[in-house]
UniProtKB/TrEMBL annotation:
Bias type Acidic residues, positions: 32-44, 178-190
Pfam family membership, one: Radial_spoke
Primary site of residence: cytoplasm
Keyword line: Cell projection, Cilium, Cytoplasm, Cytoskeleton
UniProt lineage: Eukaryota, Metazoa, Ecdysozoa, Arthropoda, Hexapoda
UniProt KW Cytoplasm keyword: yes
Residue numbers spanned by region Disordered: 21-58, 150-190
Annotated organism of origin: Molorchus minor
Protein name: Uncharacterized protein
Compartments reported by the entry: Cytoplasm, Cytoskeleton, Cilium axoneme
């Protein structure tokens, strides 16, 4: 790994290759410069440049100097074929950034490629819980169950079956109504 070198700029923890100061103006102390100090008190001075600039390793640093991940080296090397060595590629894979590869053909052609998700290696991979089955989201019942629409004849039969029924009349009122009906019939005959 001492013959493989970093030939591009290092990506800082800030996510950039050149450091950017997020707080260009230094902050003053709480009381400002007008506050008088008592005996034995020291003045706290805010750093003049703000946060300390981040720096990365210099260019052409060998891969062997990269930090290892516990027991795993930072890079692993393999060849694409052991049968036809004249046409085999040398592949260097990053173990810190899964998906970062560099390959070479007998030292004549070099290329870098990244086929990853943009996340560093996580020792314990995160996998979210699967979604519950859709059928259990809403219980099946009469409000949700699909049904066929009734025909016009079925609707009419249902309406007739659910008409309010006439109230039963007491026997005294029924007899009085029967006498009135007989009188009305006689008047109609005349």
């Amino acid at each position: 790994m001492s013959f493989w070198l970093h030939h591009t700029q290092y990506i800082l923890p800030q996510g950039r290759t050149s450091w950017w100061n997020p707080n260009p103006m230094p902050e003053l102390g709480e009381g400002g410069a007008d506050e008088e100090l008592g005996e034995g008190e020291e003045q706290e001075v805010a750093p003049k440049g703000g946060p300390e600039p981040e720096t990365g390793p210099p260019l052409l640093t060998p891969l062997s100097e990269d930090a290892a991940l516990e027991a795993v080296p930072a890079w692993s090397v393999r060849t694409t074929s052991k049968i036809i060595e004249d046409f085999a590629f040398a592949v260097v894979r990053s173990n810190l950034w899964p998906g970062a590869y560099c390959f070479s053909t007998q030292g004549k052609f070099f290329q870098n490629i990244y086929l990853g998700y943009g996340h560093k290696l996580i020792e314990q991979s995160f996998s979210p819980l699967p979604l519950p089955p859709i059928q259990q989201e809403y219980p099946i019942g009469p409000e949700i169950m699909e049904m066929t629409d009734p025909t016009g004849a079925e609707e009419e039969q249902w309406r007739i079956d659910h008409l309010p029924k006439p109230k039963p009349m007491p026997p005294a009122e029924a007899a009085a109504e029967g006498g009135e009906e007989a009188e009305e019939e006689e008047e109609e005959d005349e």
